[in-house]
Amino acid sequence: VFPAAALLARRFGARVVAVHVPDTGAAVPAGPADVKRFVASDFADASVLIGQAPAWRGIVQAAVDEKADVVAVARQGADNIGEEILGTTTDRVLRHAPCPVLVA
After folding, report:
1. What would the DSSP string read from start to end of 2-71?
2. Measuring CA to CA, which residue among 16, 96, 5 is closest to residue 88?
3. Residues 6+ apart with CB under 8 A from 86
4. Degrees to nearest 5, angle at CA 103 with 38 and 87
5. What is residue 80's three-state secondary structure?
6. Beta-carbon neighbour count of residue 26 at 10 Å?
7. Contacts (Cβ under 8 Å, ≥6 apart) of 80
8. Tens digits of per-residue pLDDT, 45-73?
9. Taking the model in full, what pTM does it have?
10. How many CB atoms lie within 10 A of CB 20?
11. Any residues with CB less than 8 A from the CB of 55 and at least 6 apart, and which?
């Protein structure tokens, strides 16, 4: 999803906010500096927010708080056949986001 979102951000001069919701089971959760390094090649000027779990809720809340015009999320794996196409986080972001959602 990063290349598509980066293209849109450059085209429209958008401010980019990278939202990371740490896995609660991670031995060493990523911090803002880790996320900044991860997205730097596509989004050098991105600011970083660390959201609260579950991931979909953290993403939606960040979109509300930041008054986002669009949310970009990656298609993820599924836990069951009903979530096979979009995945749980992506599906919930699509259903609850306050703005359009780009899925790649």
Report:
1. HHHHHHHHHHHT---EEEE---TT-SS---HHHHHHHHTTT-TT-EEEEPPSSHHHHHHHHHHHTT-S-E
2. 96
3. 75, 76, 78, 94, 103
4. 90
5. coil
6. 8
7. none
8. 999 999 888 999 999 999 999 999 999 99
9. 0.83
10. 22
11. 21, 89
